[in-house]
Structures are given as C-alpha cells and as structure tokens.
Amino acid sequence: MSLPLADAIFWVAVACCSIAQLAIIRSVVISPARVAGSEPTSTIRRVGEITWAVLPGIALALVFLFTWRAMHTVSASNAVVASVFR
Asked: 41-79 burial by CB neighbour count: b if 16+ within 10 A, else e?
C-alpha cells in the first residue's frame, strides 16, 4: 500500500474515532438524568462516569500516536533498503 493512501486511511480513522469519542463524552456530560430533571447524581459518580469516558479516548490517542510512528518508521526503513538495492 502506498504511503499517501495509508496516510489518508489513517486520518479518516482518526476523524471518525474523534467524532465518536466526542459524542460519547457529550452524552456522559449531558446525561438523561440532568435533562429530565430527575434526582441529581452524586459528584463522585459523575466524576467516575466522565473519567471512564475520557480514559478510552486517551488510550486511543496513544494507539494512534504509536501507529503513526510505526507507519513512518517502516516507510523510512523501506526507503533506505530500496536505495541500497538499486
């Protein structure tokens, strides 16, 4: 697969995952209980819910970072190997 195509697929995946993660965080922050006006949730529970919504986003960002570095490390080493065997 060519590097520009791989980069395009990578950035499309980043955009889709970012939109999904923002939707998850938004749904946790604006919970149905707050909208409906029913009993308020405890602060500890709210912090826990927000934490469990944000942590996967941070983990996903790290996966994207390591993937980006691996993609470009491999492409750089392939260029060196290709130049040696010319």
From this structure: eeeeebeeeeeebeeebeeeeeebeeeeeeeeeeeeeee
Query: Based on the structure, what is the number of domains in the chain?
Result: 1
Domain holding 31, by residue range, is 3-84
pLDDT tens per residue across span 42-51 = 778 888 888 9
As separate numbers, helices (DSSP H) first and strands (DSSP E) second, the chain gives: 3, 0
The pTM for the full model equals 0.69
* Per-residue pLDDT reduced to its tens digit, 65-80: 999 998 888 666 666 5
Where do the DSSP E strands lie in the chain? none
Query: What would the two tokens of residue 73 be?
Result: 């490390």
